[in-house]
Structure prediction request, 247 residues.
Amino acid sequence: WLLQGLFYLALSLNELGQKQEASALLAAAAPLDHPGCVDAHLFVAKTLLNSTNLTTEALRTGTQSSTNFTAETLYSVERHLLNAIALEPQSLEANEMLGRFYINTHNPAKARTRLMKIYAAKPDTALLLAITWVMDKDSAAAILWSDRAIMAYEKNLIDSAPNYSPDDRLGLVQALSIKQMYAPTQEAVAPEPRKVSSTAPQDSPPFWLGVVRLLMFNGKFSPALQTLNQQIRRNVSRHYYFPYLFR
Prediction:
């Protein structure tokens, strides 16, 4: 609790502009050479990532490569995340962050070790596991884990309908893209739109049509109708329409 208190005090001093004092307290709460406070270690790791191009957003999407890193920064990020895991071995946040870190620093085997720790508790981690197998050029494993990711994200969308998380929508599109890369089918989420658009795949009418179909298939008729009505209202000004509903 003492280290946790030091961490919160460091945050308060930082807000007050007392940067030097805050930095000293933060170093005490999150030492590099041994575990201190979980929250402090995660905060320092995120801060270090945000000072480079390997930001927390890059870790979320899993697409950014490290180009302006120093070896010291990489070492520090890894150590703080390992310290956090030493304190809380089952931490979803710490294990996922370290897994994404290893993906972005091209260590797929190490990433799998971390991600498998939390897969049972967070099934959509399957997408990151699929990415590690893509990196290792193992098509069978990539298909297996992309299938698991698709099922996980579809369940998330069904359970949250009609209030969908952007992360779930993007995750489903990414999982489908991996599956299509190795096992192409005629349709992914939904048929291709007839009108070319710069709209992101997870925001496109064909994607939402796929979501509506998914909900109806699972007996979620009210959320399906709500979703359809919302998307018709949003897209009518863009001159989109849903012809596939009437085939």
Summary: The radius of gyration is 21 Å. The chain has twelve helices and no strands. Confidence is low (pLDDT under 50) at residues 188-194, 239-247. Residues 139-160 form the longest helix (22 residues).
